[in-house]
């Protein structure tokens, strides 16, 4: 898909995998029941986080990620294999059903290799959250990187600072992008810049910070130029 928003407006044109909006959603009806808040508070909290998330707002259902059967109130039938798609080493497969470019980049990364080998590397939920599916926040990513990449471990301790730097630059690009998307008269250029932005935010998931920094600086320069031209055009 092409319209993915990253920091902090990743996101994405979402596909309803299971067509959850076409029928009564017994999953959500059950989990949002006020009685559930008392009986199963943790699961009720999951519902509240999901309901206001980008996925909830887009109209997805529990079954779109978890599987199961949203058409039945039978507890066993509704929950068949619902945990399998969200096992730590399967998250990228589940998310990748919609976020294909991010998944394809991630599976080329050292993080994925380590995840496959011993399960200690991050997955999608490590940075984006689980039910709430946060947009990427720079501070969250930096603090997450520090768990492994620090002076004590000696494992590429410069990574958190570099990630912080690049993500802040991408945030700046995002601001320029909003202006250019709205006011840029050269729509062909706007489309090209959007494609480059989508590629950049997908390529981030390779975690090749050297190359992604170069691409970020290049795109930032292009957006600055495009914004300056858009400002001139508005004054004409």
UniProtKB/TrEMBL annotation:
<protein>
    <submittedName>
        <fullName>Ammonia-forming cytochrome c nitrite reductase subunit c552</fullName>
    </submittedName>
</protein>
<dbReference type="GO" id="GO:0042597">
    <property type="term" value="C:periplasmic space"/>
</dbReference>
<feature type="signal peptide">
    <location>
        <begin position="1"/>
        <end position="24"/>
    </location>
</feature>
<dbReference type="InterPro" id="IPR036280">
    <property type="entry name" value="Multihaem_cyt_sf"/>
</dbReference>
<keyword id="KW-0732">Signal</keyword>
<dbReference type="InterPro" id="IPR003321">
    <property type="entry name" value="Cyt_c552"/>
</dbReference>
<dbReference type="Pfam" id="PF02335">
    <property type="entry name" value="Cytochrom_C552"/>
</dbReference>
<dbReference type="GO" id="GO:0042279">
    <property type="term" value="F:nitrite reductase (cytochrome, ammonia-forming) activity"/>
</dbReference>
